[in-house]
């Protein structure tokens, strides 16, 4: 599924894992993303694109605190009862906020809401000509829900907005300082999904969009 930003008017576990993910996620060219379905008019202007995992569905589309949000879960789950979620957030008017500042704000709030946590280092690079970053965070017990959560994040600083993709697993509570319930195969699948998240602008030659079939 190809989801351009026009669909929306315009949240470290292990350092080794994060390092592998960085090499796979950052710098993935737009040409490797799943292409736009036949028959859809070419989108105009800056937009994000992503390949939604097979068998997943959209369960949320809203705007909260200045961010446009779309969320997806597997078919057998829903917005209230889920263990796997992919969230895309588009922050309009925050283009001057670099990855380091965004990361610091995000992790500060994360520490406040988790009883135990582990936060991976920010790792930066370029994605299709845009500044990009990747990090991993594990929350052993989320204060409100009581569940544990592990999330992989990919951030892209566009010219018109900041874009954030978040792949999250909700699990029973765990000690985030010692272990993670997310297995190797699950993390590899999440990395593949984040590889397909990017930003492009067909009006420029610097940030090409995926070719249409």
Short description:
The chain is α+β, with helices and mostly antiparallel strands and 213 residues long. It contains three helices and ten strands. Helices cover 18% and strands 33% of the residues.
Descriptive report:
The chain is of the alpha+beta class and 213 residues long. It has one domain: Mog1/PsbP, alpha/beta/alpha sandwich (Protein Transport Mog1p, Chain A), CATH 3.40.1000. The chain contains 3 helices and 10 strands. Strands 2, 3, 4, 5, 6, 7, 8 and 9 form an 8-stranded antiparallel beta sheet that branches. The longest helix has 15 residues. The N terminus is likely disordered.
| First-last Cα distance | 13 Å
What is the CATH topology classification name?
Answer: Protein Transport Mog1p, Chain A
**Gyration radius, in Å:** 16 Å
Q: Into how many domains do the coordinates divide?
A: 1
Number of strands: 10
Derived structural class: alpha+beta
What is the strand content?
25-35%
Largest sheet, in brief, is: 8 strands, antiparallel
The CATH level-2 architecture is identified as 3-Layer(aba) Sandwich
Total helices: the number is 3
Q: Could you tell me the mean pLDDT? A: 81
CATH C-level class is Alpha Beta
Could you spell the SSE succession in H and E letters?
HEEEEHEEEEEHE
Q: Can you tell me the CATH superfamily?
A: Mog1/PsbP, alpha/beta/alpha sandwich
Using the alpha-carbon principal axes, give the shape.
Answer: globular
- Which residues sit in consecutive blocks of at least 5 with pLDDT less than 50? 1-42
Kindly state the percentage of residues in helix. Answer: 10-25%
